[in-house]
Amino acid sequence: MEVLGSNYPIAPFKATLSSIITVLQLGVIVVLLLGDYVFPAMGFAQPPELYQQLKDKKMVVVMGAWFVGNMLQNSLTSSGAFEIYFDGQKIFSKLETVIAGEDRCVSRRSLLALAPLVPAAFLAAPANARNVKDALKAKAEREAALKAAAEKMRNSGRNAEAFADSSYAVSEDKSPNIHTRQEEGLRTATK
């Protein structure tokens, strides 16, 4: 068995932005560590006031530039991609299993189930809904349609029930955990 690893390509603008961040990061560090020599060599009689203020906290600013710069670069260059191919066929893709833009294992339906618990600003409304109210209205309409379908099936002599079950857990700080689920459907059985 041969295993080949490669990096998933990132968008060109992200690669460029990452390079700019590297230059800025190293520039800040060099200026702070060697500013007393750099500014006179550039023809400044007196270093800028900002440099004097940052020079007093030199190590904090250098460490901040290092850590924040690396964090920004990592977030720009990390795609979260993981794909497995066997005989040229894709058998697993993390990019296809995660909903676009949601990498926290929480689906939009789960967030809608939590609407009473979470401020509306944090809810991701479906693409066809303008806001959370529209999404909740659509959910209520789906539930009503399921109940109507169940009633129609019962009238035709089949046992049917509509269900719309939402379950979630809330921690002590009132934040929902990731084990949230919501099911909707129609259970049928012949009498």
Total strands: 4
Overall outline? elongated
By secondary-structure content and strand pairing, the structural class works out as alpha+beta
Distance between the termini: 55 Å
Question: How large is the radius of gyration?
Answer: 28 Å
Written as H for each helix and E for each strand, in order along the chain, the element string is HHHEEHHHEE
Number of helices: 6
Low-confidence stretches: 99-129, 162-191
Strands ordered across the widest β-sheet? 1-2
Note the beta-strand portion: 15-25%
Helix share bin: 40-55%
Task: Specify the biggest β-sheet.
Answer: 2 strands, antiparallel
Q: How many separate structural domains?
A: 2
What's the mean pLDDT score?
66
GO cellular component, one term: endoplasmic reticulum membrane
InterPro entries: Selenoprotein_T (IPR019389)
Biased composition (Basic and acidic residues): 171-191
GO molecular function: thioredoxin-disulfide reductase (NADPH) activity
How would you characterize the overall build of this protein?
- The chain is of the alpha+beta class.
- The chain has two domains: 84 residues, no CATH class; 83 residues, no CATH class.
- The protein is built from six helices and four strands.
- A hairpin with a 2-residue loop joins strand 1 and strand 2.
- The longest helix has 30 residues.
- It is elongated, with a radius of gyration of 28 Å.
